[in-house]
Design a protein that fits this description.
With about 475 residues, the protein is of the alpha/beta class. The protein contains 15 helices and 22 strands.
Length: about 475
């Protein structure tokens, strides 16, 4: 889900917790909430903020951009906590290389191919579970998840695992057997958490004691399997609007549930929060994804122009969003998502790949999903240098950074696509309608699955290229 459903139809520029405008003199006026459940919009020439749960405290600051956001981060740190002392690990993640087309054999082949590259974590992403909501190994992992964690640890790295603990698909056993566990609206209907995996998603009511017990056992189970790096995704579902078992502000409910997850997994685990409400997650997670998913392309015309969706997967969307959230660095390890070095299955130009790599160096959060069998020798060597790099970084302006002795300019990624006009506007409306049709979304999933099958088959037939 790419926007808060409560505000999906608001026409003014708006957002959660913080808003800022650039004044005619170049200074920034910032209005920032100091607690959860707050929203802000720009009403003509006024920033207006409110708390869904009533009154709350605000910070108002005016000055240069870097200073006012630093002031806001300082205020939030005093209330929610500061960045974890645990450094962000260097991660190989299965998602963007193989997506759900993973199995035990292919992953073991990949782990062998990574050989002595200096990764700290090898993380298994979506595709290992029976269903979203049913967090047991599926038939593609016959040895089980504990055995896979042992395989990873035998390479000298820590094992990582992806889960989406606050949601379940409609066909899951969890949803069928425990319908009372799921969030409903004031009319008693299930609250939608989106549409993915070819079916509807539903959100757990995280105020229910039985749900919190189940979440606790789930985290303990994953840790007992041997996974020390947990990438928990689709976390926004814990804060969706709805009628809860225990009435409380929705982001308060989310934060309490996140505290339960954190306690159950243990302080020694590295907790990466994805698809997560930012402010209510501070002080509880070690790392936080601060932008949309990347992709092996810069920008998709359909999504960027016709649908005007700036949150869909793509490198330009990811860079733009992350740059505007780097003020969070004192509060949490900021994850800009993975970088690419391989040219196979990738349409990014070399400069576009380099921009994404520079952003990861600035965040000091380094990850890739490149499959080692797809690298050339030069690409493998460049990745090694990237993983070992610890450059000095200085922010010069909104778009410019000094990274060691070079100036990196992200201006190319910051611009917004033009609004569709004329016939293009009609086409955009049609695509918007299509995007709300479940049959269309299911057809797109079939198309994606066929493309993944080809990618998986190519891995089986590829010769070793980079080592």
């Amino acid at each position: 889900m790419q926007t808060d459903p409560r505000y999906a139809r608001v026409s003014q520029p708006h957002g959660s917790w913080v808003g800022a405008v650039e004044l005619v003199d170049g200074e920034i006026l910032l209005l920032g909430a100091l607690n959860t459940d707050a929203h802000i919009h720009l009403n003509e020439n006024r920033l207006e903020g409110w708390y869904e749960s009533g009154e709350g405290e605000w910070l108002i600051a005016r000055g240069d951009e870097l200073t006012v956001f630093a002031h806001y981060a300082q205020a939030l740190g005093q209330r929610f906590g500061w960045v974890s002392a645990k450094p962000a690990p260097r991660v190989w993640c299965s998602w963007y290389g193989l997506y759900t087309a993973i199995d035990e054999t292919i992953l073991c082949r990949v782990f062998d191919g990574l050989n002595d590259l200096p990764f700290d974590v090898l993380q298994v992403d979506d595709g290992w579970q029976r269903q979203v909501g049913d967090w047991q190994a599926n038939a593609k992992f016959p040895s089980g998840m504990a055995a896979l964690a042992d395989t990873i640890k035998n390479t000298g790295r820590k094992a990582g695992l992806w889960l989406a603990p606050f949601i379940a698909v409609q066909s899951s056993r969890l949803f069928r057997e425990h319908p009372t566990w799921f969030l409903r609206d004031e009319h008693g209907r299930f609250v939608s958490a989106g549409f993915n995996w070819g079916e509807r998603l539903y959100a757990l009511d995280v105020t229910r004691p039985d749900v919190l017990d189940w979440l606790t056992e789930l985290m303990k189970q994953v840790r007992a399997w041997g996974y020390d790096y947990l990438k928990l995704d689709f976390l926004y579902a814990g804060a969706l609007p709805g009628k809860r078992y225990v009435e409380m502000p929705r982001e308060v409910a989310y934060r309490r549930a996140l505290s339960v997850l954190r306690k159950a997994m243990g302080d020694d685990a590295f907790f990466l929060a994805c698809g997560a409400p930012i402010l209510p997650s501070l002080g509880l997670c070690d790392g936080l994804r601060i932008g949309p998913d990347v992709a092996s392309e810069w920008e998709v015309y359909r999504d960027a122009v016709l649908l005007r969706n700036l949150t869909t997967p793509g490198v330009r969307n990811a860079i733009r969003t992350c740059l505007h959230r780097l003020w969070l660095v004192p509060l949490v390890q900021t994850d800009p998502d993975v970088v690419y070095f391989a040219s196979k299955w990738n349409t990014l130009s070399r400069p576009q790949k380099q921009l994404l790599q520079e952003l990861a160096l600035i965040c000091n959060f380094k990850a890739t999903s490149d499959v080692p069998q797809w690298w050339t020798r030069e690409e493998r060597a460049a990745l090694r240098d990237f993983l070992l790099a610890l450059p000095k970084v200085q922010r010069l302006s909104r778009a410019e950074f000094r990274v060691e002795d070079r100036v990196v300019d992200f201006s190319e990624a910051l611009g917004l696509p033009a609004l569709p006009e004329g016939k293009e506007k009609i086409v955009a409306a049609f695509f918007g309608w299509l995007g709300n049709q479940p049959l269309v979304l299911k057809a797109l999933k079939v198309q994606d699955d066929l493309a993944l099958r080809k990618r998986r088959e190519s891995l089986g037939s590829d010769k070793k290229r980079g080592y």
